Task: inverse folding
Protein backbone atom coordinates (compact mmCIF):
# COMPACT_ATOMS: atom_id res chain seq x y z
CA UNK A 1 0.00 0.00 0.00
CA UNK A 2 2.75 2.27 1.03
CA UNK A 3 4.58 1.68 -2.27
CA UNK A 4 1.45 2.57 -4.25
CA UNK A 5 1.12 5.74 -2.24
CA UNK A 6 4.70 6.69 -2.88
CA UNK A 7 4.41 5.83 -6.57
CA UNK A 8 1.36 8.06 -6.98
CA UNK A 9 3.07 10.80 -5.05
CA UNK A 10 6.14 10.38 -7.23
CA UNK A 11 4.13 10.57 -10.43
CA UNK A 12 2.35 13.63 -9.17
CA UNK A 13 5.60 15.38 -8.42
CA UNK A 14 7.00 14.28 -11.77
CA UNK A 15 4.00 15.87 -13.47
CA UNK A 16 4.60 19.14 -11.70
CA UNK A 17 8.29 19.23 -12.58
CA UNK A 18 7.80 17.95 -16.12
CA UNK A 19 7.84 21.39 -17.71
CA UNK A 20 10.87 22.64 -15.79
CA UNK A 21 12.83 19.52 -16.66
CA UNK A 22 12.17 19.86 -20.38
CA UNK A 23 13.54 23.38 -20.34
CA UNK A 24 16.82 22.49 -18.65
CA UNK A 25 17.85 19.72 -21.08
CA UNK A 26 19.58 22.28 -23.28
CA UNK A 27 22.80 23.84 -22.14
CA UNK A 28 25.86 21.66 -21.64
CA UNK A 29 28.79 22.45 -23.87
CA UNK A 30 27.76 24.70 -26.75
CA UNK A 31 29.53 26.35 -29.61
CA UNK A 32 28.23 29.85 -30.20
CA UNK A 33 28.51 31.59 -33.53
CA UNK A 34 28.01 35.31 -33.10
CA UNK A 35 27.05 36.95 -36.37
CA UNK A 36 27.98 40.58 -36.80
CA UNK A 37 26.28 42.36 -39.71
CA UNK A 38 28.61 44.89 -41.28
CA UNK A 39 28.60 46.88 -44.50
CA UNK A 40 32.15 47.15 -45.78
CA UNK A 41 34.25 48.46 -42.92
CA UNK A 42 31.36 49.73 -40.77
CA UNK A 43 28.88 47.96 -38.53
CA UNK A 44 25.45 47.92 -40.13
CA UNK A 45 23.00 50.54 -38.96
CA UNK A 46 19.59 51.27 -40.52
CA UNK A 47 20.36 55.00 -40.43
CA UNK A 48 23.60 54.82 -42.38
CA UNK A 49 24.02 55.26 -46.11
CA UNK A 50 26.45 53.08 -48.00
CA UNK A 51 27.89 53.06 -51.51
CA UNK A 52 28.24 49.99 -53.72
CA UNK A 53 30.90 49.26 -56.32
CA UNK A 54 28.81 50.95 -59.01
CA UNK A 55 28.71 54.17 -56.98
CA UNK A 56 25.04 53.83 -56.00
CA UNK A 57 24.13 54.95 -52.49
CA UNK A 58 21.68 52.95 -50.40
CA UNK A 59 20.59 52.01 -46.90
CA UNK A 60 19.46 48.64 -45.60
CA UNK A 61 16.25 48.27 -43.53
CA UNK A 62 15.93 44.54 -43.48
CA UNK A 63 18.07 41.50 -44.10
CA UNK A 64 17.35 37.87 -43.29
CA UNK A 65 18.89 34.62 -44.41
CA UNK A 66 18.75 30.94 -43.60
CA UNK A 67 21.80 29.02 -42.43
CA UNK A 68 21.35 25.26 -42.23
CA UNK A 69 22.98 21.83 -42.24
CA UNK A 70 25.90 22.79 -40.02
CA UNK A 71 28.85 20.45 -39.70
CA UNK A 72 32.00 20.74 -37.61
CA UNK A 73 35.38 19.39 -38.61
CA UNK A 74 37.75 18.13 -35.94
CA UNK A 75 41.56 18.28 -36.20
CA UNK A 76 41.53 14.65 -37.36
CA UNK A 77 39.78 15.87 -40.49
CA UNK A 78 36.51 14.16 -39.72
CA UNK A 79 33.26 16.03 -40.27
CA UNK A 80 30.49 15.89 -37.68
CA UNK A 81 27.15 16.93 -39.13
CA UNK A 82 24.74 18.57 -36.70
CA UNK A 83 21.30 17.15 -37.17
CA UNK A 84 18.30 19.40 -37.74
CA UNK A 85 20.38 22.56 -37.63
CA UNK A 86 18.26 25.28 -39.22
CA UNK A 87 18.59 28.93 -38.30
CA UNK A 88 16.98 32.10 -39.57
CA UNK A 89 19.32 35.05 -39.15
CA UNK A 90 17.61 38.43 -38.94
CA UNK A 91 19.77 41.53 -38.55
CA UNK A 92 16.92 43.24 -36.67
CA UNK A 93 16.69 40.48 -34.07
CA UNK A 94 19.83 40.24 -31.94
CA UNK A 95 18.87 36.85 -30.51
CA UNK A 96 18.85 35.38 -34.02
CA UNK A 97 22.44 36.59 -34.51
CA UNK A 98 23.60 34.04 -31.97
CA UNK A 99 23.70 30.53 -33.34
CA UNK A 100 24.19 27.91 -30.66
CA UNK A 101 25.40 24.49 -31.76
CA UNK A 102 25.97 21.43 -29.62
CA UNK A 103 29.76 21.51 -29.27
CA UNK A 104 30.92 18.10 -28.20
CA UNK A 105 34.01 18.45 -30.36
CA UNK A 106 36.73 20.36 -28.57
CA UNK A 107 39.13 20.70 -31.50
CA UNK A 108 37.04 22.30 -34.23
CA UNK A 109 39.21 23.40 -37.13
CA UNK A 110 36.50 24.38 -39.58
CA UNK A 111 32.76 24.76 -39.90
CA UNK A 112 30.50 24.16 -42.84
CA UNK A 113 26.93 25.23 -43.44
CA UNK A 114 24.46 25.76 -46.22
CA UNK A 115 23.48 29.34 -46.95
CA UNK A 116 19.81 28.58 -47.63
CA UNK A 117 17.51 25.61 -47.04
CA UNK A 118 18.22 22.21 -48.60
CA UNK A 119 15.87 21.02 -51.34
CA UNK A 120 14.49 18.17 -49.20
CA UNK A 121 12.93 20.67 -46.80
CA UNK A 122 11.58 22.65 -49.74
CA UNK A 123 9.59 19.78 -51.18
CA UNK A 124 8.35 17.82 -48.16
CA UNK A 125 5.35 19.85 -47.10
CA UNK A 126 4.93 22.37 -44.31
CA UNK A 127 7.80 22.65 -41.82
CA UNK A 128 7.79 24.13 -38.34
CA UNK A 129 9.99 26.36 -36.19
CA UNK A 130 12.16 28.76 -38.19
CA UNK A 131 11.08 26.94 -41.35
CA UNK A 132 7.38 27.69 -40.73
CA UNK A 133 6.04 29.44 -43.86
CA UNK A 134 4.46 31.99 -41.49
CA UNK A 135 7.97 33.41 -40.97
CA UNK A 136 7.48 35.17 -44.27
CA UNK A 137 10.45 33.49 -45.92
CA UNK A 138 8.43 31.18 -48.15
CA UNK A 139 6.83 31.53 -51.55
CA UNK A 140 3.35 30.06 -51.42
CA UNK A 141 2.65 30.36 -55.17
CA UNK A 142 5.90 28.72 -56.27
CA UNK A 143 6.89 26.30 -53.55
CA UNK A 144 10.22 27.12 -51.99
CA UNK A 145 12.01 29.16 -49.39
CA UNK A 146 13.23 32.67 -49.82
CA UNK A 147 16.77 31.72 -48.84
CA UNK A 148 17.87 35.28 -48.24
CA UNK A 149 16.11 38.62 -48.27
CA UNK A 150 17.31 42.21 -48.26
CA UNK A 151 15.18 45.34 -48.41
CA UNK A 152 16.13 48.97 -48.27
CA UNK A 153 16.05 52.28 -50.08
CA UNK A 154 18.28 53.89 -52.65
CA UNK A 155 18.15 57.25 -54.39
CA UNK A 156 18.68 55.48 -57.71
CA UNK A 157 15.77 53.02 -57.31
CA UNK A 158 12.93 53.67 -59.78
CA UNK A 159 10.43 51.89 -57.50
CA UNK A 160 7.78 53.58 -55.29
CA UNK A 161 9.37 54.91 -52.10
CA UNK A 162 12.79 54.46 -53.76
CA UNK A 163 12.75 50.94 -52.40
CA UNK A 164 14.75 47.93 -53.44
CA UNK A 165 13.66 44.39 -52.51
CA UNK A 166 15.79 41.34 -53.10
CA UNK A 167 14.08 38.05 -52.28
CA UNK A 168 16.49 35.36 -53.35
CA UNK A 169 15.28 31.78 -53.71
CA UNK A 170 15.20 28.68 -55.89
CA UNK A 171 16.37 25.19 -55.02
CA UNK A 172 16.08 23.07 -58.15
CA UNK A 173 18.50 22.65 -61.04
CA UNK A 174 19.79 25.87 -62.54
CA UNK A 175 17.62 27.89 -60.17
CA UNK A 176 19.41 26.54 -57.09
CA UNK A 177 20.81 29.45 -55.07
CA UNK A 178 21.86 27.53 -51.97
CA UNK A 179 25.58 27.80 -51.29
CA UNK A 180 27.79 25.52 -49.25
CA UNK A 181 30.08 27.64 -47.09
CA UNK A 182 33.26 26.35 -45.42
CA UNK A 183 35.28 28.46 -43.04
CA UNK A 184 38.48 27.76 -41.12
CA UNK A 185 38.32 28.38 -37.39
CA UNK A 186 41.30 29.55 -35.36
CA UNK A 187 42.38 27.93 -32.12
CA UNK A 188 41.30 30.81 -29.94
CA UNK A 189 37.71 30.58 -31.13
CA UNK A 190 37.63 26.88 -30.48
CA UNK A 191 38.99 27.31 -26.98
CA UNK A 192 36.43 29.97 -26.15
CA UNK A 193 33.57 28.02 -27.80
CA UNK A 194 32.77 31.19 -29.65
CA UNK A 195 33.17 32.16 -33.28
CA UNK A 196 32.76 35.75 -34.37
CA UNK A 197 31.42 35.72 -37.88
CA UNK A 198 31.13 38.90 -39.88
CA UNK A 199 28.40 39.07 -42.52
CA UNK A 200 29.37 41.82 -44.94
CA UNK A 201 26.11 42.91 -46.56
CA UNK A 202 28.02 44.99 -49.11
CA UNK A 203 28.95 41.72 -50.77
CA UNK A 204 25.34 41.36 -51.97
CA UNK A 205 26.16 44.14 -54.42
CA UNK A 206 29.86 43.77 -55.01
CA UNK A 207 31.28 40.68 -56.64
CA UNK A 208 32.12 39.19 -59.99
CA UNK A 209 28.92 40.64 -61.43
CA UNK A 210 28.09 43.83 -59.51
CA UNK A 211 24.41 44.38 -58.73
CA UNK A 212 22.95 47.66 -59.93
CA UNK A 213 20.01 48.93 -57.86
CA UNK A 214 19.01 51.29 -60.66
CA UNK A 215 18.84 48.48 -63.22
CA UNK A 216 17.49 45.75 -60.91
CA UNK A 217 15.65 47.16 -57.91
CA UNK A 218 13.46 44.06 -57.44
CA UNK A 219 14.04 40.33 -57.36
CA UNK A 220 10.99 38.24 -56.44
CA UNK A 221 11.44 35.05 -58.45
CA UNK A 222 14.06 32.34 -58.82
CA UNK A 223 16.22 32.68 -61.92
CA UNK A 224 19.11 34.63 -63.37
CA UNK A 225 19.00 37.71 -61.15
CA UNK A 226 18.56 35.61 -58.00
CA UNK A 227 21.58 33.54 -59.01
CA UNK A 228 23.62 36.69 -59.63
CA UNK A 229 22.85 38.04 -56.15
CA UNK A 230 23.52 34.68 -54.49
CA UNK A 231 26.82 34.36 -56.33
CA UNK A 232 27.75 37.70 -54.80
CA UNK A 233 26.52 37.20 -51.25
CA UNK A 234 28.03 33.74 -50.83
CA UNK A 235 31.28 35.56 -50.03
CA UNK A 236 29.79 37.73 -47.29
CA UNK A 237 31.13 35.67 -44.37
CA UNK A 238 34.45 36.19 -42.62
CA UNK A 239 35.66 34.72 -39.35
CA UNK A 240 37.22 37.58 -37.40
CA UNK A 241 38.40 35.77 -34.32
CA UNK B 1 -4.26 4.29 10.13
CA UNK B 2 -4.31 1.96 7.14
CA UNK B 3 -7.61 3.42 5.98
CA UNK B 4 -6.32 6.93 6.36
CA UNK B 5 -3.45 6.09 4.00
CA UNK B 6 -5.91 4.68 1.46
CA UNK B 7 -7.93 7.90 1.52
CA UNK B 8 -4.80 9.93 0.95
CA UNK B 9 -3.81 7.72 -1.99
CA UNK B 10 -7.21 7.98 -3.63
CA UNK B 11 -7.25 11.73 -3.08
CA UNK B 12 -3.82 12.00 -4.71
CA UNK B 13 -4.95 10.04 -7.73
CA UNK B 14 -8.06 12.17 -8.15
CA UNK B 15 -6.10 15.40 -7.68
CA UNK B 16 -3.45 14.28 -10.18
CA UNK B 17 -6.14 13.47 -12.69
CA UNK B 18 -7.84 16.83 -12.25
CA UNK B 19 -4.54 18.71 -12.42
CA UNK B 20 -3.57 16.90 -15.60
CA UNK B 21 -6.86 17.62 -17.33
CA UNK B 22 -6.83 21.20 -16.06
CA UNK B 23 -3.35 21.66 -17.51
CA UNK B 24 -4.82 20.96 -20.95
CA UNK B 25 -2.86 17.76 -21.27
CA UNK B 26 -5.88 15.73 -22.05
CA UNK B 27 -7.32 15.15 -25.43
CA UNK B 28 -9.48 12.30 -26.49
CA UNK B 29 -8.21 9.44 -28.57
CA UNK B 30 -8.26 10.07 -32.31
CA UNK B 31 -10.22 7.77 -34.56
CA UNK B 32 -8.25 6.65 -37.61
CA UNK B 33 -9.96 6.87 -40.98
CA UNK B 34 -8.92 4.45 -43.67
CA UNK B 35 -8.18 5.91 -47.08
CA UNK B 36 -9.53 3.60 -49.75
CA UNK B 37 -7.84 3.46 -53.12
CA UNK B 38 -10.47 2.56 -55.69
CA UNK B 39 -9.90 -0.77 -57.36
CA UNK B 40 -7.55 -0.57 -60.33
CA UNK B 41 -6.22 2.88 -59.40
CA UNK B 42 -2.53 3.51 -58.72
CA UNK B 43 -1.25 4.07 -55.17
CA UNK B 44 -1.73 7.62 -53.94
CA UNK B 45 1.30 9.92 -54.01
CA UNK B 46 0.26 11.70 -50.81
CA UNK B 47 2.21 10.56 -47.74
CA UNK B 48 -0.51 9.38 -45.36
CA UNK B 49 2.13 8.26 -42.84
CA UNK B 50 3.15 11.86 -42.26
CA UNK B 51 -0.48 12.94 -41.92
CA UNK B 52 -2.69 9.99 -41.00
CA UNK B 53 -6.38 10.65 -41.58
CA UNK B 54 -8.52 10.76 -38.47
CA UNK B 55 -12.20 11.44 -37.94
CA UNK B 56 -11.23 14.51 -35.91
CA UNK B 57 -8.75 15.79 -38.50
CA UNK B 58 -11.12 15.38 -41.44
CA UNK B 59 -13.97 17.10 -39.55
CA UNK B 60 -11.67 19.98 -38.57
CA UNK B 61 -10.42 20.27 -42.14
CA UNK B 62 -13.98 20.47 -43.40
CA UNK B 63 -14.87 23.18 -40.89
CA UNK B 64 -11.83 25.22 -41.99
CA UNK B 65 -12.60 24.58 -45.66
CA UNK B 66 -16.01 26.21 -45.35
CA UNK B 67 -14.99 28.97 -42.89
CA UNK B 68 -14.39 32.55 -44.00
CA UNK B 69 -12.06 32.94 -41.01
CA UNK B 70 -9.21 32.14 -43.38
CA UNK B 71 -9.87 35.33 -45.35
CA UNK B 72 -9.24 38.96 -44.48
CA UNK B 73 -12.88 40.08 -44.60
CA UNK B 74 -14.30 36.83 -43.23
CA UNK B 75 -16.35 36.31 -46.39
CA UNK B 76 -14.23 34.06 -48.58
CA UNK B 77 -13.61 30.43 -47.73
CA UNK B 78 -12.02 27.61 -49.72
CA UNK B 79 -15.56 26.47 -50.45
CA UNK B 80 -16.39 29.84 -52.03
CA UNK B 81 -14.49 28.90 -55.17
CA UNK B 82 -14.44 25.12 -54.75
CA UNK B 83 -18.14 24.44 -54.68
CA UNK B 84 -19.55 21.00 -54.09
CA UNK B 85 -22.21 21.44 -56.77
CA UNK B 86 -19.51 22.34 -59.30
CA UNK B 87 -17.47 19.22 -58.62
CA UNK B 88 -15.43 21.38 -56.20
CA UNK B 89 -14.53 23.79 -58.99
CA UNK B 90 -15.97 27.30 -59.39
CA UNK B 91 -19.48 27.02 -60.71
CA UNK B 92 -20.31 29.50 -63.47
CA UNK B 93 -17.46 31.94 -62.71
CA UNK B 94 -14.66 32.35 -65.19
CA UNK B 95 -12.16 33.76 -62.67
CA UNK B 96 -12.30 33.13 -58.92
CA UNK B 97 -13.89 35.89 -56.85
CA UNK B 98 -11.71 37.15 -54.00
CA UNK B 99 -12.10 39.82 -51.31
CA UNK B 100 -12.90 43.48 -52.14
CA UNK B 101 -14.59 42.64 -55.45
CA UNK B 102 -11.36 41.33 -56.84
CA UNK B 103 -10.79 38.57 -59.35
CA UNK B 104 -8.02 36.05 -59.28
CA UNK B 105 -6.27 35.40 -62.58
CA UNK B 106 -7.46 31.84 -63.09
CA UNK B 107 -10.44 29.51 -63.06
CA UNK B 108 -10.57 27.43 -59.88
CA UNK B 109 -10.19 23.77 -60.86
CA UNK B 110 -12.08 20.86 -59.32
CA UNK B 111 -10.11 19.58 -56.34
CA UNK B 112 -11.04 15.92 -56.36
CA UNK B 113 -8.63 12.96 -56.34
CA UNK B 114 -5.88 15.21 -54.95
CA UNK B 115 -4.18 12.24 -53.24
CA UNK B 116 -2.82 11.25 -56.65
CA UNK B 117 -1.51 14.65 -57.70
CA UNK B 118 2.18 15.57 -57.37
CA UNK B 119 1.95 19.29 -57.95
CA UNK B 120 -0.83 21.83 -57.79
CA UNK B 121 -2.19 24.91 -59.55
CA UNK B 122 -2.54 25.36 -63.31
CA UNK B 123 1.21 26.00 -63.46
CA UNK B 124 2.26 23.19 -61.09
CA UNK B 125 4.07 25.70 -58.88
CA UNK B 126 3.06 24.14 -55.58
CA UNK B 127 4.80 20.92 -54.67
CA UNK B 128 2.82 19.56 -51.73
CA UNK B 129 -0.88 19.35 -50.98
CA UNK B 130 -0.40 20.69 -47.43
CA UNK B 131 1.18 23.85 -48.86
CA UNK B 132 -1.56 24.45 -51.41
CA UNK B 133 -4.05 26.35 -49.17
CA UNK B 134 -1.36 28.87 -48.20
CA UNK B 135 -1.39 30.33 -51.72
CA UNK B 136 -5.07 31.40 -51.89
CA UNK B 137 -5.02 32.42 -48.20
CA UNK B 138 -2.16 34.86 -48.76
CA UNK B 139 -2.97 35.99 -52.32
CA UNK B 140 -4.19 39.58 -52.08
CA UNK B 141 -6.77 39.04 -54.83
CA UNK B 142 -8.16 35.89 -53.21
CA UNK B 143 -8.37 35.64 -49.41
CA UNK B 144 -5.96 38.51 -48.79
CA UNK B 145 -4.71 37.31 -45.41
CA UNK B 146 -1.32 36.78 -43.79
CA UNK B 147 -0.45 33.48 -42.16
CA UNK B 148 0.35 35.28 -38.90
CA UNK B 149 -3.10 36.82 -38.79
CA UNK B 150 -4.90 33.57 -39.66
CA UNK B 151 -2.96 31.68 -36.99
CA UNK B 152 -3.74 34.43 -34.47
CA UNK B 153 -7.46 34.18 -35.27
CA UNK B 154 -7.39 30.41 -34.89
CA UNK B 155 -5.31 30.46 -31.71
CA UNK B 156 -7.74 32.87 -30.05
CA UNK B 157 -10.77 30.86 -31.16
CA UNK B 158 -11.78 28.47 -28.35
CA UNK B 159 -13.57 25.99 -30.61
CA UNK B 160 -10.70 25.72 -33.08
CA UNK B 161 -8.12 25.48 -30.28
CA UNK B 162 -10.02 22.56 -28.83
CA UNK B 163 -10.43 20.83 -32.17
CA UNK B 164 -6.79 21.27 -33.22
CA UNK B 165 -5.76 19.82 -29.89
CA UNK B 166 -8.11 16.89 -30.34
CA UNK B 167 -6.91 16.19 -33.88
CA UNK B 168 -3.19 16.93 -33.60
CA UNK B 169 -2.44 17.13 -29.88
CA UNK B 170 -1.13 20.69 -30.09
CA UNK B 171 -1.79 23.57 -27.76
CA UNK B 172 -0.60 26.15 -30.23
CA UNK B 173 -1.81 25.99 -33.81
CA UNK B 174 0.91 26.54 -36.42
CA UNK B 175 0.96 26.53 -40.21
CA UNK B 176 1.83 22.83 -40.10
CA UNK B 177 -1.41 21.76 -38.45
CA UNK B 178 -3.47 24.21 -40.51
CA UNK B 179 -2.14 22.67 -43.73
CA UNK B 180 -2.52 19.13 -42.50
CA UNK B 181 -6.11 19.66 -41.36
CA UNK B 182 -7.26 21.11 -44.68
CA UNK B 183 -5.45 18.32 -46.55
CA UNK B 184 -7.24 15.71 -44.48
CA UNK B 185 -10.64 16.91 -45.67
CA UNK B 186 -9.58 17.52 -49.26
CA UNK B 187 -8.02 14.05 -49.50
CA UNK B 188 -11.41 12.50 -48.75
CA UNK B 189 -12.87 14.11 -51.89
CA UNK B 190 -12.45 11.08 -54.10
CA UNK B 191 -14.52 11.05 -57.25
CA UNK B 192 -14.92 7.50 -58.54
CA UNK B 193 -18.65 7.00 -58.66
CA UNK B 194 -19.76 8.54 -61.92
CA UNK B 195 -21.82 6.62 -64.43
CA UNK B 196 -18.57 6.00 -66.31
CA UNK B 197 -17.10 4.29 -63.21
CA UNK B 198 -20.24 2.22 -62.74
CA UNK B 199 -20.12 1.11 -66.37
CA UNK B 200 -16.47 0.15 -66.02
CA UNK B 201 -17.33 -1.86 -62.91
CA UNK B 202 -20.09 -3.62 -64.83
CA UNK B 203 -22.87 -2.11 -62.71
CA UNK B 204 -24.40 0.03 -65.42
CA UNK B 205 -24.59 0.42 -69.19
CA UNK B 206 -23.92 3.36 -71.51
CA UNK B 207 -26.80 4.40 -73.74
CA UNK B 208 -25.90 4.50 -77.44
CA UNK B 209 -24.65 8.12 -77.74
CA UNK B 210 -22.55 7.66 -74.59
CA UNK B 211 -21.06 4.45 -75.97
CA UNK B 212 -20.24 6.08 -79.32
CA UNK B 213 -18.77 9.07 -77.49
CA UNK B 214 -16.69 6.76 -75.31
CA UNK B 215 -15.22 5.08 -78.37
CA UNK B 216 -14.46 8.41 -79.98
CA UNK B 217 -12.91 9.70 -76.76
CA UNK B 218 -10.44 6.83 -76.90
CA UNK B 219 -9.40 7.82 -80.40
CA UNK B 220 -9.25 11.58 -80.03
CA UNK B 221 -8.84 12.68 -76.40
CA UNK B 222 -7.29 9.93 -74.35
CA UNK B 223 -3.61 10.84 -74.93
CA UNK B 224 -3.90 13.90 -72.71
CA UNK B 225 -6.95 12.85 -70.69
CA UNK B 226 -6.36 9.18 -69.77
CA UNK B 227 -8.49 7.45 -67.11
CA UNK B 228 -8.80 7.06 -64.21
CA UNK B 229 -7.98 10.76 -63.59
CA UNK B 230 -8.78 11.95 -67.12
CA UNK B 231 -5.56 13.95 -67.15
CA UNK B 232 -1.96 12.87 -67.65
CA UNK B 233 -0.92 15.75 -65.32
CA UNK B 234 1.36 17.14 -68.04
CA UNK B 235 1.72 20.82 -68.96
CA UNK B 236 0.68 21.64 -72.50
CA UNK B 237 0.10 24.61 -74.69
CA UNK B 238 -3.40 24.09 -76.08
CA UNK B 239 -3.04 26.97 -78.52
CA UNK B 240 -4.98 29.57 -76.51
CA UNK B 241 -3.93 33.11 -77.33
CA UNK B 242 -2.51 34.94 -74.32
CA UNK B 243 -5.03 37.19 -72.62
CA UNK B 244 -3.81 40.78 -72.89
CA UNK B 245 -4.96 41.77 -69.42
CA UNK B 246 -3.94 38.67 -67.49
CA UNK B 247 -0.64 38.12 -69.33
CA UNK B 248 -0.46 34.68 -67.76
CA UNK B 249 2.54 32.70 -69.03
CA UNK B 250 1.49 29.56 -67.18
CA UNK B 251 4.22 27.03 -66.50
CA UNK B 252 6.93 29.47 -67.59
CA UNK B 253 6.17 31.55 -64.48
CA UNK B 254 7.53 28.65 -62.45
CA UNK B 255 10.36 27.23 -64.55
CA UNK B 256 11.52 30.47 -66.16
CA UNK B 257 11.99 28.54 -69.41
CA UNK B 258 10.63 29.94 -72.64
CA UNK B 259 9.66 26.44 -73.86
CA UNK B 260 7.10 26.42 -71.04
CA UNK B 261 5.45 29.64 -72.17
CA UNK B 262 1.64 29.39 -72.17
CA UNK B 263 1.68 25.80 -70.97
CA UNK B 264 -0.94 24.87 -68.40
CA UNK B 265 -1.74 21.63 -66.63
CA UNK B 266 -4.09 19.35 -68.53
CA UNK B 267 -7.30 19.56 -66.47
CA UNK B 268 -9.13 16.47 -65.28
CA UNK B 269 -12.39 15.87 -67.12
CA UNK B 270 -14.10 14.34 -64.11
CA UNK B 271 -17.29 16.31 -63.38
CA UNK B 272 -16.63 18.37 -66.50
CA UNK B 273 -20.37 18.63 -67.17
CA UNK B 274 -20.91 20.73 -64.04
CA UNK B 275 -17.64 22.65 -63.83
CA UNK B 276 -18.11 25.21 -66.63
CA UNK B 277 -16.69 27.62 -67.69
CA UNK B 278 -13.56 25.98 -69.10
CA UNK B 279 -9.91 26.75 -69.73
CA UNK B 280 -7.30 28.07 -67.27
CA UNK B 281 -8.93 31.49 -67.38
CA UNK B 282 -12.46 30.22 -67.85
CA UNK B 283 -12.71 31.79 -71.31
CA UNK B 284 -14.99 29.10 -72.71
CA UNK B 285 -18.55 29.15 -71.40
CA UNK B 286 -19.60 25.77 -72.76
CA UNK B 287 -18.20 22.43 -73.89
CA UNK B 288 -19.31 23.41 -77.37
CA UNK B 289 -16.84 26.36 -77.25
CA UNK B 290 -14.06 23.97 -76.24
CA UNK B 291 -14.80 21.60 -79.10
CA UNK B 292 -14.92 24.52 -81.55
CA UNK B 293 -11.43 25.54 -80.42
CA UNK B 294 -10.05 22.05 -80.84
CA UNK B 295 -11.60 21.39 -84.25
CA UNK B 296 -10.72 24.79 -85.68
CA UNK B 297 -8.52 24.62 -88.77
CA UNK B 298 -7.16 28.13 -88.17
CA UNK B 299 -3.35 28.26 -87.86
CA UNK B 300 -2.25 27.75 -84.24
CA UNK B 301 0.05 30.12 -82.38
CA UNK B 302 3.72 29.21 -82.23
CA UNK B 303 4.44 26.74 -79.43
CA UNK B 304 1.07 24.96 -79.62
CA UNK B 305 1.25 21.29 -78.63
CA UNK B 306 2.11 19.10 -81.63
CA UNK B 307 -0.99 16.96 -81.00
CA UNK B 308 -3.17 20.00 -81.73
CA UNK B 309 -1.23 21.49 -84.61
CA UNK B 310 -3.77 20.57 -87.23
CA UNK B 311 -6.77 20.62 -84.94
CA UNK B 312 -8.84 17.59 -83.99
CA UNK B 313 -11.35 16.76 -86.71
CA UNK B 314 -14.83 16.64 -85.12
CA UNK B 315 -18.22 16.69 -86.82
CA UNK B 316 -21.25 18.23 -85.09
CA UNK B 317 -22.58 14.71 -84.76
CA UNK B 318 -19.38 13.56 -83.02
CA UNK B 319 -19.43 16.56 -80.70
CA UNK B 320 -22.90 15.51 -79.57
CA UNK B 321 -21.72 11.99 -78.79
CA UNK B 322 -18.56 13.16 -77.02
CA UNK B 323 -20.66 15.51 -74.91
CA UNK B 324 -22.96 12.62 -73.98
CA UNK B 325 -19.92 10.64 -72.86
CA UNK B 326 -18.37 13.52 -70.92
CA UNK B 327 -21.63 13.94 -68.99
CA UNK B 328 -21.20 10.38 -67.71
CA UNK B 329 -18.15 11.64 -65.80
CA UNK B 330 -20.40 13.62 -63.43
CA UNK B 331 -20.23 12.02 -60.00
CA UNK B 332 -23.61 12.62 -58.40
CA UNK B 333 -22.67 10.81 -55.19
CA UNK B 334 -19.70 13.16 -54.72
CA UNK B 335 -21.75 16.33 -55.01
CA UNK B 336 -24.58 15.16 -52.75
CA UNK B 337 -22.54 13.40 -50.06
CA UNK B 338 -23.35 15.13 -46.73
CA UNK B 339 -19.81 14.32 -45.57
CA UNK B 340 -18.53 16.78 -48.16
CA UNK B 341 -21.19 19.50 -47.92
CA UNK B 342 -21.09 22.48 -45.55
CA UNK B 343 -22.73 21.58 -42.23
CA UNK B 344 -25.07 24.57 -42.55
CA UNK B 345 -26.38 23.19 -45.81
CA UNK B 346 -26.85 19.76 -44.28
CA UNK B 347 -28.81 21.33 -41.43
CA UNK B 348 -31.01 23.33 -43.76
CA UNK B 349 -31.77 20.31 -45.87
CA UNK B 350 -32.84 18.38 -42.82
CA UNK B 351 -35.20 21.09 -41.61
CA UNK B 352 -38.70 20.90 -42.86
CA UNK B 353 -39.72 24.17 -44.38
CA UNK B 354 -42.90 25.73 -43.02
CA UNK B 355 -44.25 27.41 -46.12
CA UNK B 356 -46.68 29.54 -44.08
CA UNK B 357 -43.85 31.27 -42.30
CA UNK B 358 -42.20 33.81 -44.49
CA UNK B 359 -38.79 33.11 -43.08
CA UNK B 360 -35.88 31.55 -44.86
CA UNK B 361 -34.42 29.83 -41.90
Result:
Amino acid sequence: MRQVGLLVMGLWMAGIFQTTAAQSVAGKSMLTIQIIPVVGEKNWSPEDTYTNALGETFSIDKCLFYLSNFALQSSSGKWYPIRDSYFLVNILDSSSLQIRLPGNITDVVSIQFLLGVDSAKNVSGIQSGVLDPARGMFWTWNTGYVMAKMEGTSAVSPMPGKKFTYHVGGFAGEQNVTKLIQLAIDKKSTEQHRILLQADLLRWFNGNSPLSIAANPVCHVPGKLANQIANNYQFQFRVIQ
Amino acid sequence: MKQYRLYITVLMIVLSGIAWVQADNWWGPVHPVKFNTPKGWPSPVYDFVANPLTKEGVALGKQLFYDGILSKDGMVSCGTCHQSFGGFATYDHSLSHGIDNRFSTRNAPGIVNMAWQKNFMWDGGILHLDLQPLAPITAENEMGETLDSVLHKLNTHADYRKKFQQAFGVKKITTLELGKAISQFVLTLVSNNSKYDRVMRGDDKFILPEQLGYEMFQQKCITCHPPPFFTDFSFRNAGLAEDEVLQDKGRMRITGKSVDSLKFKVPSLRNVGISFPYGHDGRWATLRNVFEHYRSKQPRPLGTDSLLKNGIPLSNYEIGQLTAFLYTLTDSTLITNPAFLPEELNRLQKQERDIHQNKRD
